[in-house]
Amino acid sequence: MTAALEDELSYLPRPPLPIPASAKPRDAEDLGKSSFSGVHPMSSPSPPSPTAPPSPSLGAGSSPWASPATRPPSVITVRELWVWAGKKAILSDINLDFAEREVTAIIGPSGCGKTTLIRTLNRMTEVSPGLKVRGSIQYKGQDIYGRAVNPVLLRQRVGMVFQRPTVFPLSVFENVAFGLRLNRESRDVVETKVVDSLKRAGLYEELKDNLHRSALTLSGGQQQRLCIARALAVNPRVLLLDEPTSSLDPSATQKVEDLLFELKREYAVIIVTHNMQQAARVADRTAFLYQGKLIEVDETKRLFENPREKLTESYVTGRFG
Amino acid sequence: MEPAPSQGVRPAEGTLKEPAPTPSPSDVSWLHQYWKAVVSSPISLVPLFLLAFVGGVLLWASELHNFGTSFWGTYWNWIPPGPGSSYGIGYFALGSVLTAGLAILLATILSLAMAISIVVYLPPIASRVLTLFTDLLAGIPSVVFGIWGFVILAPYFGRTLEPSLRDALFWIPGFGGPEYAIGGGTGILLAVFVLTIMVIPITTAVMRESLRAVPHSAVEAGLALGATRWEVVRRVRMPMARQGISGALFLGFGRAIGESVAVAMLIGATPQLPPSLYAGGYTIASYILDQQDSAFVYPILLQVLVEFALVLLLITLAVNLVGHWLTRDQRSPGRRGLFS
Ligand SMILES: Nc1ncnc2c1ncn2[C@@H]1O[C@H](COP(=O)(O)OP(=O)(O)O)[C@@H](O)[C@H]1O
Ligand SMILES: [Mg+2]
After folding, report:
1. Model pTM greater than 0.90?
2. Cα separation, B100 vs B315, whole angstroms
3. CA-CA distance, A304 to B2, in Å (whole number)?
4. What ipTM did this prediction achieve?
5. Does A321 fall in a domain?
């Protein structure tokens, strides 16, 4: 095993939820068990593990919404996504690609469906009662709403940070270790990954003297970065952030934004913000959402300086919102 | 008595001294806190009345002479009353602690399972029905539980359940013992069983509310980290509700140890070191109830019963205080009292 592979696979998933026999092997292979590779860290007796690459099916290249070849490969592909709350469409016909190693911002006035959109990406919409999700969302070519997909593994691949810091009333260490403990990692692995995640989140230097202090004693900005560290610990590929700085002061906001630049080297970062300056500062691409519809998505610079749609123009120039 | 002056209120007419500076939060003593609690809610006076009552009984009891080493022992022989008689609370205290302790152990397991089902797993209608059911259970008079246990459960316990338990589990301490101990079915095990049912409403209600009080954001954070529903219960909800859950334990224990009627009807009224859980026992509360009539014939017995009551009062007071303190977060602002 190469070092890189070792890295990916040092994460031993929990035994997956039972996979229905009818499950497509492709689904079973990735989100149903372990991701990113045909090699299984834990071999399961049921579905044979094909070592062939994932089937191309709806890859970015074959789709009519494909981005130019120069763009990094897309990790999440949203097609014809509708979300209904009863008879009300919260999201209508969203088509969107999220690329690897990029920060994508989702902007739009409050209530336009930004939170709902990113919550569909890791199936957190299932937690809110009364929402109906239709359409397709693919994570690395797999339909995340497929029957064989284990939402538990999906959520570790597609991590999420909420609007307000949601630290557990545990120590700093245990907060970061939370997801690792779910995976029953060994003590050594937990130890290294906690430290590593804290370093990635830029918190280690500040907190290394006492990792066992209660996380509730941290400042709001530190708590939010701790939430990021906590999500990073389980080895995600995508990080969803829902207005992560809306409850932070400017200097804490600055720190989180700096962190996003670091994170995009390794992760796909999707950030919801109602702060257009923030989108302009941190995002490579920006999507403008209005009343549940995707109005425009483009390189951030273009979207702000030379939008194609009138609606986008009036929003980014502050005429409403 | 006037309420304590708050900041910005002028001192009463005729006061010559400057009002004392308002203490900063750091040097507010617990006494001051307590005073504020008393002023803010008259309910807070209840503990004071209780303490006064305890003090009064203590004063009265100090005229009694039974609090000696023999009182805390197990030797029990008060007939004929006189210099040679002895009144040890030992077996009664043992019975009380044993029945209440076992009942709370069973009730904790069952209540936790029910509270988790109600809050997390059951569909809304089912959880409302289960909630109603447990709440109704709380309203059943203990004498009804007693007669139910005596008429319906006792024969079943004596003929079927206890003999087969004894056959199967004899190797566990308490579940073996002599066959004669089973008797007609009344005994410690039956008392424990009925007590468990009687404390389940309170333990379930308190656990349910503390599990429900865990913020939704924490639950979502757990799910977003890849926790399953059960793992969220296990690693987010239960730890965050730990205080309420242990509070429920104390409140339930207080309820169980104070129960007299049902226990008196079911425990088999035998002050002894029970040879097994099937054997008869006695508790402090049920003994007081049983002997109330004889106490009018033998004045010394009345004194003993008062002392028993005093011990019981102190135990329940302490246990309930701890329970209330642990569950203080659950009380709504409208009912703020001493502990919130
Ligand atoms: N679970 C739900 N049930 C019903 N309506 C919902 C639900 N979640 C969100 N909505 C509605 O969907 C719309 C978009 O909400 P949201 O995605 O939170 O917007 P944003 O994050 O852009 O402010 C709002 O009008 C909100 O009321
Ligand atoms: Mg939102």
Report:
1. no
2. 12
3. 66
4. 0.78
5. no
The answer to whether residue A18 sits within a structural domain is yes
What is the predicted pLDDT for the residue at B192? 97
Report yes or no on A212 lying in a domain. Answer: yes
Residue for token pair 């004889």:
B294
Residue A134 alpha carbon to ligand 1 centre in Å: 16
Those residues with Cβ within 8 angstroms of residue B324's Cβ, 6 or more apart along the chain or in another chain: B247, B251, B339
**Domain holding A172: CATH number?**
3.40.50.300
Pocket of ligand 1 (CB under 6 A): A 85, 90, 108, 110-116, 128, 130-131
- In a domain? residue A90: yes
Residue A166: HSE in the Cβ half-sphere, 13 Å Cα cutoff? 23
Gap between the Cα atoms of A91 and B332, Å rounded: 38
Q: Ligand 1: which of A83, A116, A128, A160 to mutate, judged by most atoms within 8 Å of the beta carbon?
A: A116
How big is chain A, counted in residues?
Answer: 321
The pLDDT tens digits for A12-55 are: 345 444 444 443 333 333 565 443 333 333 333 444 444 444 44
Domains of chain B listed by start with CATH number: 92-329 (1.10.3720.10)
For residue A7, the one-letter residue type is D
User: Measured between CA atoms, how close is B56 to chain A, in angstroms?
Assistant: 44
Does the N-terminal peptide bond of residue A129 adopt cis geometry, omega within 30 degrees of 0? no
Domain count, chain A: 1
The rounded distance, in Å, linking the Cα atoms of A122 and A221 is: 24
Chain A environment of B217 (Cβ under 8 Å): 162, 164, 166
Cα distance between residue B152 and residue B186, in whole Å: 11
**Which of the ligands is closest to the CA of residue A162?**
2
Instruction: For residue B20, count other CB atoms closer than 10 A to its CB.
Output: 8
